[in-house]
Amino acid sequence: MIFEFSYPDIIKQCNTMTYLNVISFCLLSGCGSIEMPDEQELSHIYKLLKGAGSIRMPKNITFMSSLYKRCIPIYAAIPEASYDFKSFRWLEKKMKKSVEPNVLAHSICSMTALIPIIQNGEIQMENKEFIAYCLGVNSIKQARFLIDYLKLGDFYYSGEDTGDNVYGEYRITINNENPDIKTQFFVAEALSSILGLIDRDDSYSRDLVPRLKKALEVLPVLCENITENINDISSRDLSVVGLCLLSILGHTAVYKETVYSTANVIGMELCERLAHTGDIARNISDDSFSSFITLCNCMNFLIKLHEVNDLIVYEASFLKLYDRIDSYWDRSSGLFLVTRKNKQKYSFKETAAVFAALCMLRSCLTDAGLFMHVDRQLSAFYSATFISSKLFNNQFYPILQDTKLELHNLGSTEKRSAPVFSEYFEVKLNKRKYHCEPGYFQAEDILSGCKYLLY
């Protein structure tokens, strides 16, 4: 059954679900960080919790599982094994205790994106300033961890410490054997989000700023790599890189002109690849067309690009893309049917990408009829992919507060299950029967989906 929801209600619910996922994995599990707060951070935490009563004061905070066990009494009785993300299988369904670079980058971006949402009161919660501050501190700690990881030469540039200052000087060289171009931009986006956070909030120390700017010196090299090799880069990767660039542009003015110029180069390239049918070629030399999700990412990117550079070609292109996307719409199921099979499968990352693209389209439409169509589409898609699918688990469990968050009737309420999105769901259309993959937390894709919902 397809239920109707108002757009503000849908956004509130998605923000809350994403908050629960991010707070439980990125903050409470200590994704990449097991540090104690320094003296200044701990002092600020006590200041934010002043008046809460001594019983609520944290005695020993680390930005990992002990945070929720020790700072709020309700968590004291939770068994040690509860919320242990080591029991989840990560990348490629293998047990991994290390955090992949993409996971860390998505974690940082998700936390920094949540902070203004929390501070503006868009999510019902107690101690919102305290939680927002903890997210900020932990995102900065993860960024420091990530920069240290880069310093080891295991990522997108190899660094040689010349010993000229306490932060180190690096000679930047591109290592072609390192992760793909998307990973490089994911990290640049994450580090730029930390710069933006520190610039707008003086609660955080500026000690990391020189190292952040030093790490971002690789951005012009990465952008040059895009422009020189754009014909060989897939539309899928270009759309993702383009979204990263626009995000960077919103976070910081560092290399602003280069980032802006490269985003427009990508925009023009995608417009040139757009066929009269509304499909997009995989690359300039490939006659085959990109996937449905790539169409959504391209539309999302071109709408956002049009907001900063209102060229007619961008608007015409994203509207043509939507016409093609809309051709997959099945109103009775509330889904975009990309195959003719009875069984349809959506990953959470794909669900979030489609949802984000529709939200961006809705925000820019002036035609009343089309606006209403997209609005109903969003409601039906949300109903099918979030409500009926049970894609989100355990949303009724309180996080860092005594009261449960109010959400639509979604998922399970098992206390030993972390409140996170499932990797994917399947639905048999003829029976309207949904199934989610249990017990598998794919950190990279799920945090990427969280980022889609928050940006």
Would you write up a description of this structure?
The chain is mainly alpha-helical. It has one domain (7-84, 98-454): Alpha/alpha barrel (Glycosyltransferase), CATH 1.50.10. It has 15 helices and 7 strands. It has helices at residues 7-27, 39-48, 65-70, 101-119, 128-151, 181-200, 209-215, 219-228, 235-251, 256-273, 292-308, 312-326, 348-364, 368-388, 443-454, and strands at residues 157-158, 173-174, 329-330, 335-336, 343-347, 424-428, 433-436. The strands form 3 sheets. Strands 5-6-7 form a 3-stranded antiparallel β-sheet. Strands 1-2 form a two-stranded antiparallel sheet. Strands 3-4 form a two-stranded antiparallel ribbon. Strand 6 (424-428) and strand 7 form a beta hairpin. Helix 9 (235-251) runs antiparallel to helix 10, helix 9 packs parallel to helix 11 and helix 11 (292-308) runs antiparallel to helix 12. The radius of gyration is 22 Å and the shape is globular.
Stated plainly, the CATH topology is called Glycosyltransferase
Terminus-to-terminus distance? 29 Å
Global shape:
globular
Taking pLDDT < 50 over at least 5 consecutive residues as the criterion, the unreliable ranges are: 57-98, 152-178
Which properties best describe this structure?
455 residues; three-stranded antiparallel beta sheet; globular; Glycosyltransferase; mainly alpha; two-stranded antiparallel sheet
